Amino acid sequence: MTAVYYSQDGQASGIGKYKDRVTGTSTPGNASITISNMQPSDSGVYVCDVTNPPDFQGINQGLIVANVLVKPSKPYCSIRGTPEANHAISLSCFSAEGAPPPKYQWFKLEEDTIKPVNEQYNPTTGLLVIGNLTTFEKGHYQCIASNSLGNSSCEIDLTTGHSEAGIIVGALIGALLAAIIICLIVWFFMTKSKSKKGKAITKEMQPMTKTLQSSEYESVPAQETAPREVPLSPTEPELLAPNHEEAEGEEK
Fold first, then answer.
1. Domain assignment of residue 82, yes or no
2. 103-110 and 113-116 strand pairing
3. Residue 187 CA: distances (Å) to CA of 1, 176, 179, 193, 199
4. How much helix, strand and coil, in percent to the nearest 5, is found in the chain?
5. What pTM value is reported for the model?
6. Looking at 128, 157, 186, which one is the last position of a domain?
7. What is the pLDDT of residues 58-92, one digit of tens each?
8. Domain span at residue 126?
9. Residue pLDDT, tens place only, 152-185
10. How far apart, in whole angstroms, are the C-alpha atoms of residue 92 and residue 193?
């Protein structure tokens, strides 16, 4: 509890942050006070405590609730998410001060006209959720925070976050990167296939080489199996076998 005002024997003074802001009445038996330059922080419960010694009988306190009404402060507008095509984003609007609590409304600015947005939003929190940015026309949007004392507004520009030029450039860069990746994949598999074919041909040539070598070895006769011709010496007399039939005829 914070002391605000003290009065005794005709002398009164404000206390703390209420100094020079509180004045009392000069009417005897009246403890009313007036607080000037009220601030939002002045809202709360105020207690009037009256003492009259030696009379302490009965109720000597009274309570009153004071609510300071404040116009909404200038709200803060912000974008949550990436403001690009096909991205879900939300627009936020919030006033730090306002009593009673302000309500929020969203509008789209088109030239000289203000149109309420078609998308659903929360008037208590000021949050506007956009499911798909392509269905939400680009442009300027305005949020108005209002209560019984007045209103304040802020604006958001969604024309630069998702321009067509940016979308086209992004698409071209993505297509170029995809083409480079595809070329690298094709080159890798072609190189790998050629390497496998080279190894297969080498393996096939090895048994053929061995077969040719073995066939060459078989076609050349060994020295042991080669035929030998022994020439007859011209000086050796030719031995003739005896003719037994002629000898028998002569004896007869």
1. yes
2. antiparallel
3. 81, 17, 12, 10, 19
4. 30, 30, 40
5. 0.53
6. 157
7. 777 888 898 999 999 999 999 888 777 777 788 99
8. 76-157
9. 999 998 775 544 445 566 678 888 898 999 998 9
10. 57
